[in-house]
Amino acid sequence: MAESGYGVQGSGAGGSRPTPPQNNREWQLIEKVVMSMQDEQRKQRRWSIFFRMATLGYLFLILILFLPMRMGTGGFTAPTEPHTAMVDVSGIIADGAEASADALTSGLRRAFEAEFSQAVMLRINSPGGSPVQSAYVYNEIRRLKAEYPDKKVYAVITDVGASGAYYIAAAADEIYVDPSSIVGSIGVIMAGFGFTEALEKLGVERRVLTSGDNKAIMDPFGPVEADQQAHIQRLLDGVHEQFISAVREGRGERLKEAEHPELFSGLIWTGEEAVQLGLADGTGSPGNVARDVIGAEEIVDYSVLPHPFERFLRGFGVSIGRGIGQVMGVDGWSLR
After folding, report:
1. What is the C-alpha separation between 120 and 135, in angstroms, rounded?
2. Helix H segments across 252-307?
3. What is the pLDDT of residues 271-308, one digit of tens each?
4. Most distant CA pair in the chain: distance in Å?
5. Cα torsion through 233, 238, 244, 248, rounded to 10
6. Among 83, 136, 231, 308, which is disulfide-ready with 298 (CB 3.0 to 4.6 Å)?
7. Domain edges within the chain
8. Domain range 72-335, CATH architecture
């Protein structure tokens, strides 16, 4: 015997099963309940998306409001109390990077111009990079030191201060390191790949048209020409000599060059060894140097950084470009 609605009907095996609604009215009621549940789920999803977007917008607004001091050249108010003015040299030194010459020199100018900055500190954690960008910063430091003779420059190397980063540090009046810091690498490198044999094995023919005998110099898909290789080597040696001259000019008689002829060979040393070699003046952290050497414990960051969103986009694009360049063997030269 069956009941109306969702009743129970006996089965031959003694089991039970739901019976379907017996009229259109019951079907309409069920349909309304289902539709109501679906509408409620849609509303919940819409509100969830709305609140997520609102939260993201709020956080983005907070970033804009609380990070203006480090973005661009405007929006920065220098403190009116004695302090140590710090500029970060972090990451690869390259045009368009956070440690580009434009960004570093802008921060250095602000640090020197600040009335209550007692000295300028370069906090360095960089493996180096472009010799051109490094030379720009080196020369600007020396110019600013001449313009503001009462303000000294102190370089403090944390994890790494090598190659182009040390080029910049050499312009400072004094260099401080951690005993475990990596320091040195006074040399120049140009790296690439050669795919000649790979092309032959794959049966690929390389076709290059130039309007100059040396326009395709050091082509990674062609054999190395001895005269072209010698020309590149002369270029690298010339840049190396400029690097050495800058270090000698900045460090002067503190360098133990006579006792250690390998000083400019591209080797790296620990911070402790760097002090013994005359590449550094002592050990200490940024806080120690500000408090004990400069005498102004408060550190104010004058670094110039792009907007966080711009930094994200730039880093994303640069990482892709560098990856392609490294695979193709056209990543250029750098101080290492």
Report:
1. 18
2. 271-277, 286-288
3. 999 999 999 999 999 999 999 999 999 999 999 976 55
4. 111
5. 160
6. 83
7. 72-335
8. Alpha-Beta Complex (3.90)
